[in-house]
């Protein structure tokens, strides 16, 4: 798997490595599929995590470990969407706004998780190249994926908050391709948020028995 860490091309003076490009392109595809509420979003997210795990395993154990968590959440999302498939009128997963209790729980989990992971990264410097922002992005990604698995519109808000840190951080640390992908993420997030927002209102309407879908 050494080719994953080799240079693919140079973009605006930045050296783009294969793992950075392939993993992030797959992540972008997964986000687009999530917007369309396609079940395939989860296998693609799993594959993205697998590619990055293969790239990091053996020399960046912390980064590889984070991808294991991402893959586990992707499996949970696949299971969750399979259970809820068909609840919407179009036969796909239905979406909704989280309750205030769910929002509070996710915010508390994100805050506590970020502090805990950042302290872990600080105690073991080999696990991360920038403990606090890295912890924020990692925990924010997990929270976003969980909200997506539950069909919550807030999933997009979580991704937007991750983007606000992820874009400048990736450019600052030389991961130009990741930075560009995060910019595209931002555009998809805004479109996806609007689509799910409107969809949540449709899915909330009761369907009369015998009425066409």
Describe this structure in words.
It contains 7 helices and 2 strands, in the order ββααααααα. It has a two-stranded antiparallel ribbon. The protein is globular, with a radius of gyration of 18 Å. Residues 206-213 have low confidence and may be disordered. The protein has 213 residues and is mostly helical. The chain has helices spanning 18-35, 41-56, 61-84, 100-123, 131-149, 154-172, 176-203; strands spanning 7-11, 14-17. α1 packs parallel to α7 (176-203), α4 (100-123) packs antiparallel against α5 and α6 packs antiparallel against α7 (176-203).
Q: In order across it, which strands form the biggest sheet?
A: 1-2
Q: What fraction strand?
A: under 5%
Count of individual beta strands: 2
Name the poorly predicted regions.
206-213
**Major beta-sheet overview:** 2 strands, antiparallel
Write the layout of secondary structure elements.
Blueprint: E1 7-11, E2 14-17, H1 18-35, H2 41-56, H3 61-84, H4 100-123, H5 131-149, H6 154-172, H7 176-203
Antiparallel strand pairs: 1-2
Helix pairs in contact: 1-2, 1-7, 2-3, 3-5, 4-5, 5-6, 6-7
Summarize the structure in short.
The chain has helices at 18-35, 41-56, 61-84, 100-123, 131-149, 154-172, 176-203; strands at 7-11, 14-17. By secondary structure, it is mostly helical.
Q: What key attributes describe this structure?
A:
mainly alpha; globular; 213 residues; 2 strands; 4% strand
